[in-house]
Amino acid sequence: MDVERNLLCSGQRDCVTFFPYLQISYGATDPSLSDRVAFPYIYRTVQSDEEEYIALCKLLKYFGWNWIGIIQFDDYIGYQNHQLLVKYLSREGICVAFTIKLARTPKANAPKQTLIMKSSTDIIIICGDGGTLSSEGLYHVRRSLSKKTCIFLSKWLNHLESSEGVFLDYCGGSLLFAQKGIRDQLDPRFIEFSDSFHPSKYPEDNLLEDIWLWKFSCLSKDEDKNEYLESVSYSLYNCSSGEEKLTALPNYLNLYHSPSLMYAVEMMSLALTHMHNSLPKQSFQNNKMYKFQLHHHLKNISYTRNGSPALSFNEKGEFVNQYEIVTEQFDPSGNWSWNIVGNYVPWALPEQRLTLSPEKIIWETPRNKVPRAQCSSSCPSGFWKAMKAGILTCCYECVQCPEGEISNRADSESCIPCPKMEWSSKKRTQCIAKMEDFLVNTSAFAVFFSASSLLFFLTTLLILGVFIAHRETPIVRANNRSLSFLLLVSIKLSFLSVFLFLGRPVDITCMLRIITFGITFSIAVSSLLAKTIMVCVAFKATKPGSSWRKWLGVKLSNSVVLFCSSIQIIICMTWLAISPPFQELDIHTSPGTIIIQCNEGSAIGFYSVIGYMGLLAAVSFVLAFLARSLPDSFNEAKYITFSMLLFCSVWITMIPAYLSTKGKNTVCVEIFAILTSSAGLLACIFLPKCYSIFCRPKLNTKSYIIRMKA
């Protein structure tokens, strides 16, 4: 009968031979059978290999193992399982260090021991079905496995159980995948049923007689068989007591296949029962309808046994079960058993599917350290994995992140750029606020400039006091004391303007810096220009009948100062109105540093202010140079010449220095130019007068002036 013939199928893809009849397999785990379009009538009471490979990859990634070896057996199943395993490993970024095909002979396997021992990985996956030939292959390379950790898949469970874990001893440590509870799923009725068989009860059953002959060394009714076995050193016994049991045979209770075999039989039985109860008897005459109805009932059946959770087929026609991850353990008496160290639940959330208790695992390594299975060492935080050209992705170099980028976790594939206002720490593990670069009030330069500015300010204030005290003396009166007072006040303000350049720049200080100095210094230079003009006019007015006499007086000098200063004020106001200076954060010039500086806003405005001061200084210099030899008792022209020469020299050299520096260095250049040019005016114009007032008071008398004119 077709249904009877196709009820059970144990091969990986043997069931396909009987398509399109309904089939249940208790051992086919090939993932391709999950394709319901190609195989709509195939059911399996086992789980596809796919989920086990996914669980294996989760385990490898949990311990950071991405460089593993594979041992497969030189047969079709070994080849097929190896192809599937590599497919899932590569999907998870796990590389294969080596693949070894074990043959049946020790001689063929001998060179492979060297390859295993020299390999840099400590993790080896045993791929393929467990069996006698597979066990022999592992035995041939057992010495090379003594310092490796082996991972066995669930297909090895039965073979390892029957051998009491002897193959696990070949490896330095072992992990095994097993379907959850599979060791407890044998029906006691099946054991009772198996133990009920004995040749004494069924004397006509030749199969039972042969099993007892070969497995229990029991005498057979066939004397020829007895003679043959005794000739090859077998000792035969009379087994009439009935103490021998089938369940005592190694590997009889097949822990991998037996539960799924019983499930297959019982599920098919239930489906047939449901179908029989739901259809009229005449419908069974239609074989085609019979098959499709059975398919319908089997697909929707739910089954439970001994209070276990209900079992049913999923949409792929297979059972889904949890996996246990186990290791071998020995009790004080030396008895061998399994120790559950983890679970894998396929239907849980992705991040919750794998649960492990690493502390339960006893690694055969120094200090019980987790075995190493990495082509390259793990890259710490602050480094990234730079792949080596032409080598597997698991082999890489750890390269420190460049400046301005970080990696805040181990084994980063790339570095993360820091935000614009932040920079990487020295170890490249975090982004920190960039250092701010400006002329801090407490810095050495700031203290020096502050002290110098204050000293010059006090000196100017002292000179102003001296001039006020001696305002009626010939020296002070002869050089237009009102212009001298205005000049001293403007120089004082120029010195004080230095403090606008110190500290963190803000918009208001940026606007006041150059404008304050530009206006105050323009007033000072305008005063010198007015003094020079007055010297020239005074010389012209000494000639009889000269028309220059009407220009003598304070009106001309005041007009010159007011006119020249007004032009600078207009330039500054226009600059502020159109494009005023503002605070600028320069994050590009110096990596890791924010240069806080003042942006001129308009380069034309900035250079117009500087250029106009230069123009006034140049005009003053020319006029003073021409008037330096005019006869006058207190002719200041030569002092003005030197002061303007100094001013022009300082500011001409300041321009390239200003353009070639950034941040606080630019500010230092500006402050130096301001202090030098202002101090030059103070020294050249007023120190000679102070010298005459204090050191040579005779020069500051009317009698001396009359005598000089005579």
TrEMBL record:
InterPro entries from the UniProt entry: ANF_lig-bd_rcpt, GPCR_3, GPCR_3_9-Cys_dom, GPCR_3_9-Cys_sf, GPCR_3_C, GPCR_3_Ca_sens_rcpt-rel, GPCR_3_CS, GPCR_3_vmron_rcpt_2
GO CC annotations, alphabetized: plasma membrane
Regions that span the bilayer: 444-470, 482-502, 514-539, 560-578, 609-627, 639-659, 671-694
Protein's cellular compartments: Cell membrane
UniProt entry keywords in alphabetical sequence: Cell membrane, G-protein coupled receptor, Glycoprotein, Membrane, Receptor, Signal, Transducer, Transmembrane, Transmembrane helix
Membrane topology: Multi-pass membrane protein
Ranges of residues in domain G-protein coupled receptors family 3 profile: 445-709
MF annotations from Gene Ontology: G protein-coupled receptor activity
Primary localisation category: membrane
CDD domains xrefs: 7tmC_V2R_pheromone
Protein name: G-protein coupled receptors family 3 profile domain-containing protein
Organism taxonomic ancestry: Eukaryota, Metazoa, Chordata, Craniata, Vertebrata
